[in-house]
Design a protein that fits this description.
This protein is mainly α and 133 residues long. The chain is built from six helices and no strands. It has one domain. It is elongated, with a radius of gyration of 17 Å.
Length: 133
C-alpha cells in the first residue's frame, strides 16, 4: 500500500532523469548557439536555431514534470523530441563541417535517452497518476 502513495508524492528517478537531461540539452543548445553563430547569415542562423527551439519547448514542458504535468505533457515532450531526433539524424548524416555534426550529435546523444526514459513504466505511471486535491 505504501508504494502507490510514494508514487503520487515523489517523482520517480526515470522522470527526474528525463527532466534533467532536457534541461541539460537546453543549456547545451545555448552554448552551441553562441559558439557556432559567428559568421552565419540569417538563413544559417535560422537553420541552426530551429531544432534548438524545439528543445527549448521541451524544457518548458519539463518545468511542470514534478507538479501539474499529466499524460499530455509526456506525450507532447515525446513527439517534439522525436521531431528533434529525426532532424538531427538527417543533419548528422549530411554534415559538411565538424560543428554541424557535433551540433546534431549532441541532440541525439542527450535526446534519445529522454524519449526512452519517458517510455519506462515508472515514468508512465507518474504522468498517469491521479490529481492531488
Amino acid at each position: 500500500m505504501s508504494s502507490p502513495a510514494r508514487t503520487t508524492s515523489t517523482m520517480p528517478r526515470q522522470a527526474r532523469a528525463a527532466q534533467l537531461l532536457v534541461f541539460g540539452l537546453a543549456f547545451a543548445g545555448l552554448v552551441v548557439m553562441l559558439v557556432l553563430s559567428e559568421g552565419l547569415t540569417s538563413y544559417g542562423m535560422g537553420k541552426l536555431s530551429t531544432p534548438w527551439l524545439l528543445v527549448w519547448v521541451c524544457a518548458l514542458l519539463a518545468l511542470t514534470y514534478d507538479g501539474s504535468a499529466r499524460v499530455g505533457v509526456r506525450h507532447t515532450t515525446i513527439v517534439v523530441m522525436v521531431f528533434v531526433l529525426v532532424g538531427s539524424f538527417s543533419q548528422a548524416a549530411g554534415a559538411t563541417a565538424p560543428g554541424e555534426f557535433l551540433d546534431a550529435a549532441l541532440r541525439i546523444v542527450l535526446g534519445l535517452p529522454v524519449v526512452v526514459l519517458l517510455f519506462l513504466s515508472e515514468a508512465t505511471a507518474w504522468f498517469d497518476r491521479e490529481r492531488e486535491k
